[in-house]
Write a structure and sequence with these properties.
Blueprint lengths: L11 E4 L7 E3 L9 E5 L7 E13 L1 H4 L5 E2 L15 E2 L4 E13 L5 H11 L6 H30 L4 H14 L5 H18 L9 H6 L8 H5 L8 E2 L8 E2 L4 H12 L20 H13 L3 E2 L5 H12 L17 H20 L7 E2 L2 H14 L12 H8 L4 E2 L6 E2 L1 E2 L7 E8 L2 E8 L1 H6 L3 E6 L5 E5 L2 H14 L2
Antiparallel strand pairs: 1-2, 1-3, 3-7, 4-5, 4-6, 4-7, 8-9, 10-11, 12-13, 14-15, 15-16, 17-18
Helix pairs in contact: 3-4, 9-12, 10-11
Length: 485
Amino acid sequence: MAEFKNFTPDKASVRRDGEDQWKEMEPNQLVPGDIVKLTMGQQIPADVILFRANEMKVNNASLTGESEDILKNPAKNTPNIFESPNCAFFGTNCTGGSGEGMVFKTGDNTVMGRIAGLAQSADAEETTLNRDIKKFILIISSIAIFLGILFFCLGMAMKYTLITGVIFAIGIIVANVPEGLLVTVTVALALTSKRMYEKQVQVNNMEAIETLGSTTCICSDKTGTLTQNRMTVSQMFIGPEIDTIDCSVNYEIFKRFEEKEKNKGDQAVMANVPMPKYDVKNKVFKTLIETIALGTVSYFTYEPSSEELRKRIASNTKTSFAKVREEIALKDEDVKEKADYATAKSELIHEEVSKAYIKRAVKGDASETGLVKFVQTLLMDGKYGCYNVEGGLDGYRKKHDIFEQGDGASKEKVQIPFSSEIKFNMMVRNVGNELFVYLKGAPERVVKRCDTILMGFDGEGNDVEQVIDDEMAQRIESANKKFGG
């Protein structure tokens, strides 16, 4: 919870004082009454009341822990502001669509700010181990003092001198105090922490281990807690194939392993290279890859967070993390600190670009993240690519951009963002001199809107299609059930 105090979104697009132009502004400069524009992939810069939304969805995981995206509707509201569809809160993510709204709370007055305040002011609760040790020490101390006084009185009764009686009493008290208790408990907790580390569990407070050890039941939300909310393409189904296709091997990873093995020369063992089970020369497979590229909108991008930048600066300058000031707190005269931030940002972005695409950051829906990481490695050019499309995923989308209708300021892209109600997203793209509709979503929703399925191509390159009859529908349903486990 203490991490919430470092929770700062990116810059915001703002209008104020009746201006028509949007301006980029730091979130800490927002005031109630400002108009902000929200787009997919952006963090909400303040608590906002929405008055316009185009299939806008917000993920409140950072606020509520619930990973499911929530569709926003400016026309609806509820007495409970936290459940109101026309409100978006600071620090949450816009994962789909777009919208505009008016700021009504900023900074510490936002919901996230109040949670951060509570987290900072909350007293640390005493652990079970602490209470048990205190109780044990109280009992031992009481016994030791009682015995010390008892033997002092017996010494006086037996005509010992006062000094002898006092020394004897102190000796009895000290003898009953377990000096090795602290060392024993510390070593026991340290060994347990080491075993926990081997199981990939980070222990920040060693005293909490005893509490965890005495726990019989843990109730937890799965997504984002027990899992990482990261999706990858595991299997595919295309018409000509009898069974589903194993897609667990990413093509770029395969090429990297292949290159590494070939560099060994005569000692190379190509059997060690994980081979893709899909046929990249299959034209139907290639068409599906191109369709996924044009049926999604998530994209690769990386902007280092404030915490990542501060950690890198602390590492570069050999100083503590706490001493590195926030970037938004820097002034014009803080030239060195600004240069440190620029260097750290450049290093982090360079490291991100050098990663394999399957490990890179993607903005957009979690399910689309898995899809674009799979198709990018097939479409991209270079030694690790397959179809050598110039510019890869982004280049292919730009070549077949989304169709726009209207004129001037009223020009809008023809698309329907995904929502949990309709369970699909749709867009119209310019492909050559024609318009193509791309639909992606739940199998039952997509199949319901299709008459045929692509089975292959003839000698002239024309589509060979098959009507989706009962048998084909059954095959599709069987594949879907297999995907669901």
